[in-house]
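User: Predict the structure for this protein chain, please.
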Amino acid sequence: MTTKSTDKIKMLSITAMLTALAVAADFFLRIPNIGGFLTYEPKDVIITIGAFIYGPVIGLIMALVTCLIEMVTVSSTGFIGLLMNFLASAMFVGVASVIYYRKKTMPRAIIGLGSGAAAMIAVMLLWNYIMTPIYMGAPREMVVALMLPLLLPFNAIKAGLNAALVLFLYKPVVTALRKSKLIPTRESNDSANKKGNTVIVAVVSALAVATMILVLLIFAKII
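Assistant: Here is the predicted structure, written as structure tokens:
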């Protein structure tokens, strides 16, 4: 077996292990019914660690798989819950890992996590405005009234806590994996960086377009 094949098998194994841990965190560490309909779970911490190691594309795949498993197991919110969970994870994990993966330094990790947190907060406020009335059958005025007392602080605390946990756990996890020779001492390549950047730009652009279209439809009172 070639070195390249061995490295690929190791990558798949570590990715599968981290995804399983993210699912376990979703199952056993979740705090439901915050404010009546919000849930905190630390799955994004583990997914971000995977994305920091292997890049944004792997991070998005881990996020999607974890959210799909959540939808068919512990979640009762169906497709809307899947959409909202994946949007939150994709923004936090994707933005943070694109910034960090290009040059792996502590300052870039902090900038990346801060940017990912800000992106997640902004996107989730918009999408709560769009989707919560559809899901709960409530007027949009009620959602607007919940923005400052509930939705903004919840998303800010969730993003801030996840960012802090990533900073605390990433180095010990990577050190242990390197000592076990499961990941290279220095794992990175330019093609992976470019591919990851392209995917995240495409995801963010599609999300921005979809958000603008939905907001315009709301103001036009079509939905």
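DSSP finds seven helices and two strands in the chain.
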